[in-house]
Specification:
The complex is a heterodimer of chains A (about 325) and B (about 280). Chain A has about 325 residues and is mostly helical. Chain A is built from 13 helices and two strands, in the order αββαααααααααααα. The longest helix of chain B has about 35 residues, at about 240-275. Classes of the chains: A mainly alpha (about 325), B mainly alpha (about 280).
Chain lengths: ~325, ~280
Amino acid sequence: MSVQLDARPPVAAAPPVRPTRSYRLSRFDARWSPYLYIAPFFLLFAVFGAYPLAYTLWVSLHEWDLLGTEPTFVGAENYTRLLADPDFWHAVVNTLGIFVISTVPQLLAALWLANLLNRQLRARTGWRMAVLVPNVTSTAAVAIVFGVLFGREFGMVNWLLDLVGVDAIDWKANRVASWVAISTMVDWRWTGYNALIFLAAMQAIPRDLYESAAIDGASRARQFWSITVPLLRPTIIFAVIISTIGGLQLFTEPRLFHAGTNAIRGGPSRESQTVTMYMFENAFAPYYNFGYGSAVAWLLFALIAVVAVVNVLIIRRLGTDAGPRTGGRKGGRG
Amino acid sequence: MSRLWRASPLTYGALVVAAFSSIFPIWWMFVVASRSSDAMGQLPPPVTPGGNLGANISRLFANTDAYFLTGLINSAIVATTVTVSVVFFSTLAGFAFAKLRFRGRNALLMVIIATMMVPTQLGVIPLYLLMTKLNWNDRLPAVIVPALVTGFGVFMMRQYAAQAVSTELIEAARVDGCGTARIYWNVVLPALRPAAAVLGLLTFMTTWNDFLWPYAVLNDPENPTVQLSLRALSDGYYQDMSQVFTGTAIATLPLLLVFVLFGRQIIGGIMEGAVKA
């Protein structure tokens, strides 16, 4: 690398000096630069991720609002008040209701759709893109569009229902109806995405399993429930957990489904206010009660954890009942 | 391949129904965006575009409640900055985790995976208080800075670098006297390009689409992101729905464009992620 600048023979002592320096430099580089490369993540996460997380707990133990007075420590008072707050429990029931009527049909439809996409198709990529396109739209835009589709007077859904003789439904003012409308947007957005995840796992299942099942006389449906579903169990659990986390945090869709004065309350009598919306209503406009809002945030976290564990237990059980005797655990890992 | 896997006409029929229900709401959004407001009251609803798009667009940009142009520019700034930053820091950290040896590597990687499981809602209130303290409320850094790194990005790049970057090549570069910075730039980054592209696309779409955090922290109606402009439009008391739909269509357009251009990679990324997760 170095260029010889003069014709003098090298001095015997010179060579060891340079290599030592560059050697030490490269030792230093190899030893410490990894930390330099991962430091941005940890620094930014510490300030804008971990610190807020821990601080939420601290804030939730205080009477803490925007008025500028010093926050006062109140211990668990926010939590005890919250546990006795009917509006909070109303929001919990809304969230769970929307979650159940969206997740179950969504995952079943995704399994069925993945099964269709797993055939030998013409224009394979085209079909995959078509079912994924709802997922790459703006959530806010979709919520507004579906808000119009589910309108009472001129909404297309009521018009279609009218064609088959069903009376107009007031989708925004009826509690369960608003859950159905919001679940429809969630399903519309996420079914294709989940179908692609299931499809990826299905393609990892050896095809001769099906061939031999067919020779043994198993029908298509039988093959689906006895081979595909059990082998997909890890992927199904993954999708259920992701849907649980997403579903229980639902905010944009129900918030924009309602417009105007009662929007953050999810309609005049809180028809579809989710827990996250309730947190917003308390922590930001109109109340700016940060302590109470933080307590809502922590109970939401607890709710997500509990529902995720219950889901996994249910799916485990389903899998063992229906599963074949061999290889029940090896699907979905490629 | 046996006849078990052949697609019957029934398969195609079902797929047509699925594809139609996927695409119809988006199509209809563009239809209403290109018609006058009467389109909303018509039954049966119109399903073909009209000639009013230009008029709707000029009404939308002139609407002083929505600050739609500011919203578009702000969203472009936020999404681009965040995307470049996430891709850069994720490839850098992913390279370190996959190919460099250092004390505490596995433990730190576990921390990163753990950060992916925490819901964002949990930190929203203190983050808001922090932004107040930094005096960033109502300003773009409040939206940009907390999003500059993601655990998902680091983890995804680590998984990809572990198998896509050849250790022999790194060692050869080292023997030639390259430092780790040059190895990252000349050897690792080119090898990571396909996965980095997918990460960039996903990050851009998520950031462009984000609603909850901007809604909390950008309260000044004159300085919104595009999604907040949509909220302002839809919460308005006037019922000019063709203007609102023009807004939703324009806000969706960049995402659709990205999807049309890179759909294959995005689908590959989602399916890859599912199997490797």
